[in-house]
Design goal:
InterPro entries: Citrate_synth-like_lrg_a-sub, Citrate_synth-like_sm_a-sub, Citrate_synthase, Citrate_synthase_AS, Citrate_synthase_bac-typ, Citrate_synthase_sf, Citrate_synthase_typ-I. The protein contains 17 helices and 3 strands. By secondary structure, it is an all-alpha fold. Bound molecules: carboxymethyl coenzyme *A.
C-alpha cells in the first residue's frame, strides 16, 4: 500500500540536495564546488581540496595555514587506541581493522555526541581528517609487524602519512617528493564523489543523529565491497593474474560471458557513461610516476592494452563501460610500495574528507530528516500461527 516509487539501487532517486560535488556522467565531468577535478588534481593539494570541500570556497593563504594547523594538531591518537590493533589477528585485512578502530573512536570522543553544536561538529570533522592517516598507517604497520610511528607535525599531511607508513626506527627515511606528489594527487582524486554507496551510508547513518565517528566507520564498511572502493585492490589483483597482454582476450571473453560472474574490475560506473575523468588523470600519472621513480611494471602494459581492447569491443561500447578511478590507481600505489590490501584503506583515508563534508552539509540542512526508505512487500499474506507440534 502507499504510493512509493520502486527504485532498486536508487538509480533515479535523489536523496538530498547538495552543493559539494557535481557529476555529469554522460560528458565525464566532475566538479568540486564548481572546480574541475583535473585542475584540482594538477594544481591544488589535498589540504586545500579538503578545505574547499568542507567550506565551499578555496582558502586564502592564512585560512589554509590555520586549517592545516588545526588538522596537524589533531593527528595523534589516544595511546589506548593502539591496544585495539593488538586484538586483531595479525593477518586481518586492514579494512577490517579500519572499520573496528574508526568505530572505536566514538568511544573516545563523547563530546562529539552533541552534533547540534556546530563547534563540536567542526572539532569532530578536524579530528576525523587528522586521525585517519595515523589510523591507516597504524593498520599497515600492524599488518607488517613493525612498530607504530608517531605523527610528525612539521611534515605535510601526505608527507606525514608516508613517514608513519614507511619509516622504521632503525633507518633514516626521506620522503621522495615524487611519491609525495603522486600520493597527494591520488588523495585529491578520491576525496569526494557525491552520493555514492559509502557516502549515502554515512548520510543514512548520520540521519539518525548517530556519533560521527560511528557514521564514518559505517562508510568504511560500505566502501570495502569490490563493487565500490574494494575494486582498486581487485583491479590490481586482476591485472597481475592476467600478467601478460596475450591473456587479455581470455579475460575480455569472460567479462562478456553472461554465465560467468567475472567482471573487469576497474571498469564501468553507475554514473559515468563516458571516461571517468579521475581515471584520465591517473592513467597519465601512472606513466609519469613510474618513469620518475625509474620503475617498470609489466602490469602497466597489461592495463593499457586491456583498456585499448575493451574500448574497441562492441560489448563495452554498447554498455558504455570505461575505465574508472580504480583502474590505474593500483599501478601507482604498487610502485610506491603499498600491498594491495592497503589500496582500499587509502581510498577510505581520502574519502573521509568527502564523508565529513557531506555529513556536515546534511546535519546543517533544515530539511534534514531521518533516512527511511520504504519497500514493496512481496512476502506471505497474513496467516495464523501454527503451534510447533502441528507443523
Ligand atoms: N565488466 C563486465 N561487464 C560489466 C561491468 C564490468 N566491469 N560493469 C558492468 N557490466 C555490465 C553488466 O553485466 C550489465 O550487463 P547487462 O545489462 O547485460 O546485465 C551492464 O554492464 C550494467 O551493469 P550494472 O551492474 O547493472 O551497472 P551498475 O550501475 O549497477 O554497476 C558497477 C556499476 C561499478 C558496480 C559495475 O560497473 C561493476 O561491477 N564494475 C566493476 C567493479 C568496479 O570497478 N567498481 C568501481 C566503481 S568506481 C569507484 C568506486 O565506486 O569505488
Amino acid at each position: 500500500t502507499g504510493a512509493f516509487t520502486y527504485d532498486p539501487g536508487f538509480t533515479s532517486t535523489a536523496s538530498c540536495e547538495s552543493k559539494i560535488t557535481f557529476i555529469d556522467g554522460d560528458q565525464g565531468v566532475l566538479l568540486h564546488r564548481g572546480y574541475p577535478i583535473d585542475q584540482l588534481a594538477e594544481q591544488s593539494n589535498f589540504m586545500e581540496v579538503s578545505y574547499l570541500l568542507l567550506n565551499g570556497e578555496l582558502p586564502s593563504k592564512s585560512e589554509l595555514e590555520q586549517f592545516s594547523n588545526h588538522i596537524t594538531r589533531h593527528t595523534m591518537v589516544h595511546e589506548q587506541l593502539a591496544q585495539f590493533y593488538r586484538g586483531f589477528r595479525r593477518d586481518a585485512h586492514p579494512m577490517a581493522v579500519m572499520c573496528g578502530v574508526v568505530g572505536a573512536l566514538s568511544a573516545f570522543y563523547h563530546d562529539s555526541t552533541d552534533i547540534s553544536d556546530p563547534h563540536q561538529r567542526l572539532v569532530a570533522s578536524h579530528r576525523l581528517i587528522a586521525k585517519i592517516p595515523t589510523i591507516a598507517a597504524m593498520a599497515y604497520k600492524y599488518s607488517v609487524g613493525q612498530p607504530f610511528v608517531y605523527p610528525k607535525n612539521n611534515l605535510s599531511y601526505t608527507g606525514n602519512f608516508l613517514n608513519m607508513t614507511f619509516s622504521v626506527p632503525a633507518e633514516e627515511y626521506e620522503i621522495d617528493p615524487v611519491v609525495e606528489a603522486a600520493m597527494d594527487k591520488i588523495f585529491i582524486l578520491h576525496a569526494d564523489h557525491e552520493q555514492n554507496a559509502s557516502t549515502s551510508t554515512v548520510r543514512l547513518a548520520g540521519s539518525s543523529g548517530a556519533n560521527p565517528f560511528a557514521c564514518i566507520a559505517a562508510g568504511i564498511a560500505c566502501l570495502w565491497g569490490p563493487a565500490h572502493g574494494g575494486a582498486n585492490e581487485a583491479a590490481l589483483n586482476m591485472l597481475r593474474e592476467i600478467g601478460h597482454i596475450d591473456r587479455i582476450p581470455e579475460y575480455i571473453a569472460r567479462a562478456k560471458n553472461k554465465d560467468d560472474p567475472f567482471r573487469l574490475m576497474g571498469f564501468g560506473h553507475r554514473v559515468y557513461k563516458n571516461y571517468d575523468p579521475r581515471a584520465k588523470v591517473l592513467g597519465k600519472a601512472a606513466t609519469e610516476v613510474l618513469n620518475k621513480l625509474g620503475k617498470q611494471d609489466p602490469i602497466l602494459d597489461v592495463a593499457r592494452k586491456l583498456e585499448e581492447i575493451a574500448l574497441t569491443d562492441p560489448y563495452f561500447i554498447e554498455k558504455k563501460l570505461y575505465p574508472n578511478v580504480d583502474f590505474y590507481s593500483g599501478v601507482i600505489l604498487s610502485a610506491i610500495g603499498f600491498p594491495t590490501t592497503m589500496f582500499t584503506v587509502l581510498f577510505a583515508l581520502a574519502r573521509t574528507v568527502g564523508w565529513v563534508a557531506q555529513w556536515n552539509e546534511m546535519i546543517a540542512d533544515p530539511e534534514q530528516k531521518i533516512g527511511r526508505p520504504r519497500q514493496l512487500y512481496t512476502g506471505a499474506a497474513q496467516r495464523d500461527y501454527v503451534p510447533l507440534a502441528q507443523r
